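Exam revision sheet. Question 4 asks you to relate a sequence to its structure. Input first:
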Amino acid sequence: MVVSNPKPRMNSEFDYVIVGAGSAGCVLAARLSEDPSVKVCLIEAGGPDKSVLIHAPAAVVAMVPSKMNNWAYETVPQPGLSGRCGYQPRGKTLGGSSSINAMLYVRGNRWDYDHWASLGNPGWAYDDVLPLFKRSEHNEQFSNAFHGQGGPLNVTYQNHKSPINDLFLAAAALNGLPLNPDYNAGEQHGSFMYQVTHKNGERCSAAKAYLTPHLTRPNLKVLINAVSAKVLLDGRRAKGVAYLQDNESKEVHATREIIISAGAFGSPQLLQLSGIGAAGELQALGIEVVQDLPGVGKNLQDHIDYVQSWRVPTDTESFGLSLRGGAKVTRAMLQWRNKRTGMMTSTYTSTGAFAKSTPDQPVPDLQLVFVIALVDDHARKLHLGHGISCHVDVLRPHSRGEVRLRSADPHDAPLIDPRFLSDERDMALLLKGGQLQQRIIESKPFDAVRGKMLYPIVLADSKAMEADIRNRADTQYHPVGTCQMGPKSDAMAVVDAQLRVRGISGLRVADASIMPTLIGGNTNAPSIMIGEKAADLIRAAH
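Answer key, structure tokens:
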């Protein structure tokens, strides 16, 4: 890209500069600017979060398959997925992916965080991070040792519930998944209504929870439509960020620290653009190597997701493309506009379950998400009529991928290679999950509404299901691990347990990319927790 003004223009100097206004970045901006004596700058590549598509929960179906508030990345061809390119929606607006996701509030399992600590990351065990989850949360349903009240992030049940969701809970119970209302407490196994980040019928994104209430703080500056180009370094100390905005090259400087919170794709991309990464890869693109860190961009993990769908009658309480459905949605839009109630407050994904593939598993290794709509290719393929769908995910995949630079141009999307199903253990587990979810939907409670499968599979035909998985499975939108946290003994660790980038002072990474291993559940709540943790670490250091 040729900029009209090649000479950088420097903005004011700040104490802290945060790159990325996603789930962790919004938390950091809010928490660090609580101290009126410090100046904080938050840089976001996307625009403001004012769209009704963000705030009306059901409008998620318009953003995920499109480029509205969405980077809409694609992966490189995936051999494990019959050579297909996978799809990777990521939020491009204030709030990041918390502004375009399905709003499910899931923390993962105690085992996950204790595992992080066992890998040489002190301070990250479950008992260490539980207070951070509680501090962030205002839970409308649960008030106990596992939940918080008074925090900025509102957690509740959806105020619209289709009767079909009761069928899922009944069918899950028949298949060994008893009702477990609070899967974020001591026991994760079982079926439940999902807790969601909603408030008064609207999405409660990280921006809405943490950033919006504090935009008037005089010590907080938010830059939007600003694409970060590189971290500016003085020797081995981070001193600022160069970014592109309005076809101009600009800079902002930090006297204390720079925190990269650009996500599992954006954070390694910015490090690599700054000369921090695997030396050979950077040199091949003509980027001067400042710090040879071979782990940058490696260790990519994501939840591989398999969806099965069935048609249901148009008079069923579901979303669909029909005259009846269109009239219902029109009424629902008016109801949401006037009262913030009704179907438009639905995230489509009201119920789900955590399951064990075998009884001897110490913790659940499969997650199910039940949807009151036909789901096909991230809603990029639409079908006439109404339906129901079920997703199943492998919670702790063995496959590992990477994120590399496509070029030295910060506007170019990175090369994303999750290497889905490259480890055959993931396929074996996903097959078990697919069979479980099909048994659930084909159970007696659904007999009155269940029609034909969108992609018919005979339950006993595992070879046909494996082929269907390779032809249609894809991400559940939970990439992590590309700037993994670890001890000095781990050659692939990018940050330490304090989230400091190895070999560079004044620079941290705080987002889902620091996870050494993928947690057993959705990643938005843990990313917010990471933001809370990073804020504590930074304040303690200064």
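Marking note for examiners. The chain has a mean pLDDT of 96.
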